[in-house]
Amino acid sequence: MATLGQLLGGSSDNPTLSDSGPEPQLERIFAEIEARRLDSALQLTEGLIQRYPNFRLAYLIKGDLLLARARPISTFGAAEHAPQDRVADLREEAFVRLQGYKNKPPADYVPRYLLQMRDDQRYAIVVDTKKARLYLYQNDNGRPRFMADYYVTQGKLGADKMAEGDKRTPIGVYHVTSSLPREKLADLYGHGAFPLNYPNEWDKRQGRGGSGIWLHGTPSDTFSRPPKASDGCVVLANQDFDTLGKSVQVGLTPVIISNDIEWLSMDDWQKERAELNAAIESWRKDWESRDMERYLGHYSRDFQSNGQDYQAFAQQKRQVNQGKTWIKVQLNNLSVFRNPGPDEVVVVTFDQAYESNNLSNTMKKRQYWLREKGQWKIVYEGPA
User: pTM above 0.90?
Assistant: First the structure.
């Protein structure tokens, strides 16, 4: 039974808000098992069950420890006649819980995706489907600061959702669109749900479909679900959902789901952030200049938006520009998030204040920028 502990190794020395969950106690239990102090391990397991009465993994460990009093056991989940699929799920849960707990991100690194948060975006959520872990970051004067991490469940067939009913969790940059209280939901969703804007414009461009991707809790008789057990949603234990919910702002909080998070040093993060901000500022200035060739040079020939391709968009902009003697554009509340995956894509959202000699308006706009041959180009633009 020491095999799991030997595989995990190490210890966590970076306490966070989520250390109030079951992982610290699980770590102590497996340490006692490795040291052959089985009575101590059983006592700790009883405490874990008392604290989390519906924690099935804790009951599996207790069963092993009781069985070990009668005969030596060499594997985790050794009870005879136990459903092997369920035991395998609990083994995997134990492994990913402790791996995630022990291997927190380095304190001086940040997820590559959080390039710029607007001032009133207090927090950002980043999910690593490979590690079955959700990370919460606070906006610390523009710099993402690690706050907490939680075990999560993803789709039964993993990540990279493509179609309705494929049992996969999407990869991309999303935002929380609403908050659904438990009173309005079936028990399956636990203490509530935060729907996400899947599919977003980039998903649609890639031919991805489906709907109903939420962050939500667990049924009332279940503490947690196996790492791969949802129909595509990201699922947390109810106590973690409640804690996380205090940080979620409807319409503002970004939820970035990655199959394997890329981490950047602060120097590299600052460099990527500055490069993107410079490209956005160049686009803004070239729009104000009324030089249509410079302005349109920021748009990809593969641009598509609201039924327009690049040619139709360019023709419309040239016609509109003929009536302009001056243009002023301000971008407020700018956010820039890099999309996970092999394509170099960033999602840019801002409040646009536009003025010219014959028009004045404000709107919330969202753009998708794609790096083409070393240059950032806009491939989508529309209201957010």
Answer: yes
